[in-house]
Design goal:
Helices cover about 35% and strands about 15% of the residues. The protein is α/β, with parallel strands linked by helices and about 300 residues long. Helix 2 links the parallel strand 1 and strand 2. The longest helix has 20 residues. The relative contact order is 0.17. The structure holds phosphoric acid mono(formamide)ester. Phosphoric acid mono(formamide)ester (CP) binds next to helix 2.
Length: about 300
């Protein structure tokens, strides 16, 4: 039976911990001068991206190459998708070429779940619409664990465009399973109905969400998913909801600043906060390669 990573909603706390422990070892490889292991020798990894990406796509490709896999990328522009080929036909074509792991990003929530039963390759969700981005949350949790030593009992504030964010959903599933207390904050127009049912505290402002937080995680304003203006301007957004030095003082003195990237500088976070000593945004990127190595390695060995 093949195994996939479609979301963190489906994983247990023990499975998440197993991935994080494996990723911690993989991070040593990423930081070492010799980044070549035999973990995926003879395997083929294809990334299929229908939406733009820098971090996720490149880190999956590098992770596959570091583990000696054959790695190839395909995107919607420049492929036969642009000629009208359907998602299912495209995936079945990639599968027929001997692909072992199919990593996919798609604007439609549930797209990887749709493909999973149709292909023999293990499917890894690299972001589906507004649903989940499981490897992002895993890399966030790895980064938190490495800097704080644990996740249980930490107060995590996730602030910004909660409505459109797949990152926030995966983080809520993962962090609450590992015992963190999660708050979300942002404009009421960017807060989905019923999010409190996922076990988080909800605020229509940033200040209350980040009081005494151990982790302050900004979310990108996803203008590409907004059909109508949900806030007056990015300048006003920063004034009322952006994280600057003053707002950050509401969090614990040793609070970490995180962001999944790409960051809109001066919109979600001030430049001084992004580049400040509490920021671990660059380390999140390194964790991303390690987590993707761990996920693909474990999938190739029968799952989590
Ligand atoms: N965080 C994230 O998914 O970034 P990319 O869109 O650059 O992959």
């Amino acid at each position: 039976m093949k195994h996939d990573l479609l979301g963190l909603k489906e994983l247990s706390a023990d499975q998440i911990k197993h991935i994080l422990d494996t990723a911690a070892s993989m991070k040593e490889v990423v930081k070492s001068p010799n980044k070549k292991t035999p973990h995926l020798q003879g395997k083929t990894v294809v990334t299929l991206f229908y939406e733009n990406s820098t971090r996720t796509r490149l880190s999956f490709e590098l992770a596959a190459k570091y583990m000696s896999a054959n790695a190839a990328n395909i995107s919607s522009s420049g492929s036969s998708v642009a000629k009208g080929e359907t998602l299912i036909d495209t995936a079945e074509t990639i599968n027929a070429m001997g692909t072992d792991i199919l990593v996919m990003r798609h604007g439609m929530s549930g797209a990887p779940h749709l493909l999973s039963p149709l292909v023999s390759a293990a499917v890894v969700n690299a972001g589906d619409g507004m649903n989940e981005h499981p490897t992002q949350a895993l890399l966030d949790m790895l980064t938190i664990k490495e800097h704080k030593g644990h996740i249980e009992g930490l107060k995590v504030a996730i602030v910004g465009d909660v409505y459109h964010s797949r990152v926030v959903r995966s983080n809520i599933y993962g962090l609450t399973k590992l015992g963190a207390e999660v708050s979300v904050g942002g404009p009421a127009t960017l807060m989905p109905m019923g999010i409190e049912e996922l076990g988080v505290k909800v605020f229509d402002n940033v200040q209350e969400a980040i009081v005494d937080a151990d982790i302050v995680m900004g979310l990108r304003i996803q203008l590409e998913r907004q059909k109508k203006g949900l806030f007056p301007s990015t300048r006003e957004y920063f004034r009322f909801f952006g994280i600057d030095e003053q707002r950050l003082r509401l969090a614990k003195p040793d609070a970490l600043v995180m962001h999944p990237g790409p960051v809109n500088r001066g919109v979600e976070l001030s430049t001084s906060v992004i580049d400040g000593e509490r920021s671990v945004i660059t380390d999140q990127v390194t964790s991303g390669v390690a987590v993707r190595m761990a996920v693909m390695y474990l999938l190739s060995r029968g799952g989590f």
